Inverse folding.
C-alpha cells in the first residue's frame, strides 16, 4: 500500500506534533510506502527513511488550499498512491483515491472563539474563521472518512456536519519523547534556576486566544494571596510580544494584563522551547495548568501526565476524556476556581497519587496504535473501492 500524506498545513502546535510522531511508525510498517507533501522547514526536522518519499513544497499559506485542490491530485496520481491522508482539516475535493480526512481544529465549531474574536474587535479574523469553517465543513462531505483525535470532538463534528465521524486517539511515546539529552539553552536554564524554591506552574503553548491565557493570568493574584508562605511562578513557553508567536494572534492585551495585575514577578516567559527538549521542562515544574476554552486532544496534558505532573485543566469534555481522574477541573473562565484547584493539587497528599494516576493514564495513548488504526481504515477504504469497481 502506498499512502500519500498531505502535511502542508503542519506549521505549529498539534500539526507538527502529529507529523513528527507518525512518520517513524509509518516508515517501520512492513508493506507500506509513504509519500508526504510538506514544507521545507518541516523536512529539516525529519530523518530520512527508505520507505518514505518527501515532496517539499514552499507554498504561501494564503494559496495553500487552492494549490491542494488544483495540483495535489496530479501528484497523488503520479506517485501511484492508494489512499490520501489529509492531515490539515481540509480535504481535496476531487481526490483520485480514497481519502481520510484528519479534522483537529475545534475553532470552527467553538462559539467561545467567535465571541472572543468579537470582544477583541478582530472582525477580519472572525470572517476568516467563518470562511475556513465553511471549507472545513465541506471537507467532511468530500472525504470518504473523517477522523477526529477524541470522541468528544468527534461528537462535536457529528452535530455540526450530520456526518459520521471516527474517533482515533492521537498517541504518545514516552521513550521517543524523552530521547533527546541536549541541554536547554543557557537563558532558559538560568530562568529555571531563578524559579527554584517556588511553586512552578507550567503552561506549554505559544500565545493564542483559545488557550485562554487571560484566565490563567487572572488566577495569579488569588494564588499570591492564598499561598503567602510560598512564591508562585508561571512558566510560559512563549513570549507575550508581537512577532514572537505563530499566527496573527496579538499578545499585547495579555502583556498589559500582566502589568495591570502586578504579577510581572510571577510570570516567566521562557520563549519557545524545542519540542525534543520539552521533557526537561516538565521535570522542572510542579503543576501543569491548561485553561484552554476549546481543544481537540491536548498533547501537552498527556506529556505532563507522563512526566508525573498533576494536571489542572479547564472543564472540557476533551480534557475529561484524555485525563480522566488524573486531573482536577475548573470552569473554563473562572480564575478563582483555577487558583483553588492549584492550591488543592499543590498538597503532597494530593499531588503524589495524581502523579501515579497520570503516568498510568498516559500509557493508554500510543502512536503505534494510532498508526495501526489509520492503516486499518485505509485498507478498508481500498477494499471498498475495489469492490465498487468489480
Amino acid at each position: 500500500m502506498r499512502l500519500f500524506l498531505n502535511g502542508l498545513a503542519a506549521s505549529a502546535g498539534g500539526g507538527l506534533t502529529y507529523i513528527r510522531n507518525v512518520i517513524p511508525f509509518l516508515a517501520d510498517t512492513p508493506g507500506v510506502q509513504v509519500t508526504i507533501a510538506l514544507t521545507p522547514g518541516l523536512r529539516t526536522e525529519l530523518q530520512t527513511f527508505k520507505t518514505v518519499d518527501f515532496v517539499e513544497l514552499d507554498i504561501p499559506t494564503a494559496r495553500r488550499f487552492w494549490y491542494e485542490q488544483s495540483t495535489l491530485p496530479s501528484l497523488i496520481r503520479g506517485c501511484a498512491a492508494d489512499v490520501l491522508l489529509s492531515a490539515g482539516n481540509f480535504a481535496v475535493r476531487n481526490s483520485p483515491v480514497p481519502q481520510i480526512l484528519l479534522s483537529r481544529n475545534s475553532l470552527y465549531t467553538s462559539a467561545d472563539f467567535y465571541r472572543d474574536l468579537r470582544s477583541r474587535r478582530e472582525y477580519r479574523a472572525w470572517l476568516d474563521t467563518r470562511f475556513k469553517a465553511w471549507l472545513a465543513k465541506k471537507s467532511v462531505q468530500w472525504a470518504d472518512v473523517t477522523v477526529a483525535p477524541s470522541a468528544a470532538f468527534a461528537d462535536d463534528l457529528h452535530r455540526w456536519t450530520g456526518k459520521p465521524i471516527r474517533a482515533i486517539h492521537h498517541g504518545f511515546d514516552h521513550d521517543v519523547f524523552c530521547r533527546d539529552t541536549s541541554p536547554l539553552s543557557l537563558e532558559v536554564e538560568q530562568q529555571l534556576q531563578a524559579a527554584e524554591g517556588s511553586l512552578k506552574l507550567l503552561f506549554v503553548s505559544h500565545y493564542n486566544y483559545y488557550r485562554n491565557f487571560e484566565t490563567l493570568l487572572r488566577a495569579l493574584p488569588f494564588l499570591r494571596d492564598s499561598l503567602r508562605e510560598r512564591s508562585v511562578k508561571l512558566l510560559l513557553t512563549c513570549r507575550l510580544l508581537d512577532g514572537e508567536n505563530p499566527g496573527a494572534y496579538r499578545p499585547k492585551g495579555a502583556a498589559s494584563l500582566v502589568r495591570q495585575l502586578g504579577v510581572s514577578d510571577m510570570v516567566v516567559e521562557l520563549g519557545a522551547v524545542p519540542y525534543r527538549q520539552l521533557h526537561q521542562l516538565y521535570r522542572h515544574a510542579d503543576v501543569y495548568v491548561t485553561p484552554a476554552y476549546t481543544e481537540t486532544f491536548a498533547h501537552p496534558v498527556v506529556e505532563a501526565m507522563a512526566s508525573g505532573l498533576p494536571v489542572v485543566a479547564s472543564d472540557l469534555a476533551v480534557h475529561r476524556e484524555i485525563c480522566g481522574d488524573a486531573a482536577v477541573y475548573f470552569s473554563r473562565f473562572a480564575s478563582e476556581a483555577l487558583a483553588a484547584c492549584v492550591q488543592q493539587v499543590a498538597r503532597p497528599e494530593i499531588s503524589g497519587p495524581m502523579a501515579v494516576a497520570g503516568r498510568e493514564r498516559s500509557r493508554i495513548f500510543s502512536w503505534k496504535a494510532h498508526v495501526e488504526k489509520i492503516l486499518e481504515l485505509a485498507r478498508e477504504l481500498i477494499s471498498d473501492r475495489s469492490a465498487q469497481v468489480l
Notes: The mean pLDDT is 93. Residues 83 and 378 are 6 Å apart (CA to CA). The radius of gyration is 21 Å.
